[in-house]
Design brief:
heterodimer; A: mainly alpha; Arc Repressor Mutant, subunit A; 2 domains; 3-stranded antiparallel β-sheet; 8 helices; B: Rossmann fold; 7 helices; about 25% strand
Chain lengths: ~170, ~240
Amino acid sequence: MSVPLTMLGLLEREPSHGYELKRDYDTYFGRGRPLPFGQVYATLGRLARDGLVVAGESEPGAGPERKRYVITEAGATEVETWLAEPAEPEPHLQTVLFTKVVLALMLGRPAGRYLDVQRAAHLGRMRELTEVKRGEDLLDVLRADYGLFHLEADLRWIEMTAARLDALALEVRR
Amino acid sequence: MTASRSGAQAPAQPLIEARDVVKSFGQTPALRGASVAVAGGEILAVMGPSGSGKSTLLHCLAGIFTPDGGEIWFDGRRSDRLGEAERTRLRRTAFGFVFQFGQLVPELTAADNVALPLLLNRVRRKDAYETAAGWLDRLELSGLGGRRTGELSGGQAQRVALARALVGRPRVLFADEPTGSLDSLTGEMVMELMVSLAREEGTTVVVVTHEARVAACADREIMVRDGKVFDPQAAEVGR
């Protein structure tokens, strides 16, 4: 999963300090593995260098660096491009798809449409694997089956998520 | 016209088409302006959640249901405007059907069931049974023609049903959850046989399924949601 793009997405929701970003990231996407502060500030530094965020003036106060970061137009475009582009259909996409759906809902973007496009990408890949299975080699068939069953599991998750989008939107929008 | 294997686009010259079809059952709307076009030789999967209208769309395309609004076209003419007798003839001569359950006549043998459509179309008895035996061979059911349907496994019964659907060489095969009652491996075998025989025969297939692995055997899929058709390939993201 892309930590920088997820942080950018959180910044599109609202300008934030590094520690707020870390808190929100850990709450929604950390899955019990908190993001180290060092990684948060290093990532923010790279995003600022690339013109995707701008840092405000340092604010007075004790504790960690107190700068508020704001997403730029280029940063918002980067988020939009990432969300709208289907992920490469491969097994174990759960984290990426989960992150995209939650972020899209937070930002009021068309999560249902993104899921539709992802579903089509998954089915396209499943068609390719089905074609592989029409060959003679049983080992290829086994490998293709592994991919097919995992993609099918993703698709079931996509269907369930699509059916729950309204309730999810209420949950993640503050 | 034959669809390309990777054909993601709706065909320019469809063999069968629904245009803005509306259908309700009592006060309950099932289709709310559904449109789809299927090319000759194309294998189309119709997906969607339970109650989305996907089976109703198939039944409208096949002339089993008459739409309340919209149009159904088959081979260049309006099939929804045909009288009941003409529509019955169309279904018997141009279409084949495979459903999930209970389509074979239990009192008859496998060979009888497969020969039945030919006998109804006044094919000579000897010819009908010879043709039926050929189709049972193609469905890898050689030697099982004398069994009654109760003596067949679920996969064998479904292959007999497929043979019966194809024996009249239909232009379009309609399949509604054809593997829904089968385990994964048997379902896959039935689906692959259906696809390969349809390609050999040039038969157009419209298959309703909720299983992604079944849909992956088709050339293209559409989603039916709330009585409308969503074509994933035509989706534009980000607007």
